[in-house]
Write a structure and sequence with these properties.
Number of helices: 11
Number of strands: 14
Shape: elongated
CATH architecture of the largest domain: Alpha-Beta Barrel
Largest sheet: 10 strands, mixed
Order of helices and strands: EHHHEEEEEEHEHEHEHEHHEHEHE
Strand order of the largest sheet: 3-4-5-6-9-10-11-12-13-14
Radius of gyration: 21 Å
CATH class of the largest domain: Alpha Beta
Structural class: alpha/beta
Number of domains: 2
Distance between the termini: 31 Å
Strand content: 15-25%
Bound molecules: iron/sulfur cluster
CATH superfamily of the largest domain: Aldolase class I
């Protein structure tokens, strides 16, 4: 059955035409699903009874079941959601002073196998549909009506670009005026670095891009991100240089800092060199050493030195605090469990 929550407006218009209805019904139903967050066709009271019955017969609405919510001491909340087939994913709500950020998953598990990430340890189970991605936002808004989610980051479980079609459709739905109305300027798709898919994403959508670089040499990156054996740092950086960026937008480079591994002054200088032709800003994320016995968190004074070196070369660099560490909701901690 067709999940109407996972259809873009043109797809929804085609659906209504196929069942012998007027195309304008699409906007009406899209608003019910994403604006009023209806969970059944019965709720759509301005549709005739017979149309509601047809929809119940021909289509469905994905509504993941929230099976638990864990709350961190820093107010970050992690939602464990059961999908219709019994698989679990996690979605994280990160409150901010003015508005909140939601981190959504795009796959159950992940095939990328990054050694600094618990999701990678799970292996890949399956892709999420566009409806399952968008439903995470609708469901958290339903559960937390007082939340003010304006930022959405595709940084939860999975590699979004390995599930490109669902990711593109989910972004199109989330940013549509009849959808959940997230501004594309506040929507970020994160990737471990799949060059062809990155360029395709940039050609098809206006969206912000974040790339997990995490290393400045192939030797370092091969060790923590197996994808680098297929696509080297040089290939990745050249893709970033060609990426069709919307005006006024920079690519976010995620750099997880690991003690005595990629956090030296020389590494900082090499990072500046690598990014010299990329419109980029850098997020420095001190490694969370609950994740591994192999790597350690960097010393705070070295994080500050590293940041200073980038700033001294006019490269914007922000140190990101890991949120939700105590409930395993921080970067790299999502593994479909509580
Ligand atoms: S860091 Fe991202 S791409 Fe790498 S294993 Fe974890 S979820 Fe997958």
């Amino acid at each position: 059955m067709t999940d109407l929550g996972g259809l873009t407006l043109p797809e929804l218009q085609d659906f209504f035409e196929r069942i012998g209805e007027k195309r304008y019904r699409a906007t009406q139903v899209m608003t019910w699903i994403h604006g009023k967050r209806a969970t059944s066709f019965e709720d759509m009271t301005d549709l005739s009874k017979s149309l509601r019955a047809t929809l119940a017969r021909e289509a469905c609405l994905t509504t993941p079941r929230v099976t638990s919510i864990s709350c961190s001491v820093d107010d970050t909340k992690k939602f464990l959601m059961a999908m219709a087939d019994g698989e679990f994913i996690e979605t994280v709500l990160i409150p901010g002073p003015d508005y909140d950020t939601l981190c959504v998953s795009t796959q159950v598990g992940c095939a990328m196998g990054c050694r600094i990430c618990r999701t990678g340890e799970l292996g890949f189970k399956r892709n999420l549909s566009s409806g399952e991605i968008v439903a995470q936002l609708n469901e958290v808004r339903r559960q937390e009506p007082q939340s003010n989610i304006r930022n959405v980051v595709f940084m939860g479980m999975g590699e979004p670009l390995a599930n490109l079609e669902s990711t593109v459709a989910a972004v199109q739905i989330m940013t549509h005026p009849s959808g959940p109305q997230v501004s594309w300027r506040r929507l970020t798709v994160s990737t471990a670095g799949l060059p062809d898919k990155m360029l395709e994403l940039g050609r098809r959508l206006r969206v912000k891009l974040a790339v997990s670089l995490n290393a400045v040499t192939n030797e370092q990156r091969n060790h923590i991100m197996p994808i680098n054996r297929k696509h080297s740092i040089e290939e990745l950086v050249s893709t970033l240089e060609q990426y069709p960026l919307p005006r006024g937008i920079r690519i976010t480079i995620e750099y997880v800092m690991i003690d005595d591994f990629n956090d030296s002054d020389a590494d900082a200088k090499q990072l500046v060199k690598l990014l010299s032709h990329v419109k980029a800003k850098v997020n420095l994320i001190p490694f969370n050493d609950d994740l591994s016995s192999e790597f350690r968190a960097p010393k705070p004074e070295q994080v500050a030195r590293f940041q200073d070196i980038l700033l001294s070369k006019s490269l914007t660099a922000i140190v990101r605090k890991s949120r939700g560490r105590d409930i395993l909701a921080a970067c790299g901690q999502l593994a479909g469990s509580l």
